[in-house]
User: Fold Pathogen-related protein from Didymella glomerata.
Amino acid sequence: MPQEPAPPALPDYLTDPDAVLKDTEVNWRYGRAPDYSKTRKVFSETKQKSHEAGSLPELVQNLVKNWEVEASFKPTLKDWRTIDHENYSFAINSSEPEGAEAMLKVGTYNAIIAPNEYYSPDYSDFASSHKTFKRMMPTFAWEVLEVYSGPPTVSFRWRHWGVMKNDYVGINNKGEKVTAKAHGGAIDIQGVTVATVNDKVQLQSVRTWFDPMDMFRQIAPNGVVKKETVDKDMAPADVVDSTASGSATPTTKPMTTSVTEGLDAMGLGDAAATGGCPFAAGAQKQDGETKLPEGHPPVEEKMSQVVAESRTENDTIKTELDPEQHGKFDQEVADHPYMPGGFR
Assistant:
């Protein structure tokens, strides 16, 4: 009998979380590939899930890790291997989709955070954004928690976490320098991403939903920060570096955004209409209100669960999973997550 041809090998960016870090004939932002050994260590010691090698969650996890390496550290777009260059776009919380060039220009943090009382991409640039977040949290690990569907449309829930070891220093939506004292505690957020891929399992459409304010609520859990007026002519990176003794205005008003308000702000109330969020998919309008199909958890209930879980550093999420799709969660299996820039 003729021998069956071997199935095509999977791309290395699916099987190896460090695949693109090994690229040599590319332009790296700082002259060489970044070192993620510390983040890898934090991930392996504090992750919630251990995915079976070759399982769908592990492959998705590796793809996203490699994509984020390229988005943060490969400034030349043609060097990106993880995207379908002709069909790639990225959007956060039902915002207008943008191409890879936009993220390259402003940086991954600025691409995913809307202006608010703690931080604003309008007053920050690539360099200052990395100083703001990477100094505060030297490691910011990332993992896939659940995968809801496989290619060509991959939807999954993720977790992103670290420890606030140093003060938060950023520029807010009023152009003020904002400082929050380091508390040494966990910063832990979660979200949902829906992505389409081509036959090479390269990313095409990437749509992510999460509550960016949840991170800031954890940075300043009591709402206590110092705000300073700064010279508008200063470069953003210099503002973050400065120790200017401007007019300091402490505030003790805590963040009180409800889950409902957060959902409205993120556009999740209309997620079904935009055809994105898996929690709202199939929802119908009845009497002016969005109704989910029978058997689906309410969006607010699900997002409340996501937010609550994200605030418990060592909480193990108990979910019945399809073992064929998700693999065994063997605690001795070592994955390697990461996401620089917006994630790591």
Confidence is low (pLDDT under 50) at residues 244-300, 309-344. The first strand starts at residue 89 and ends at 92. Residues 82-281+290-313 form one domain.
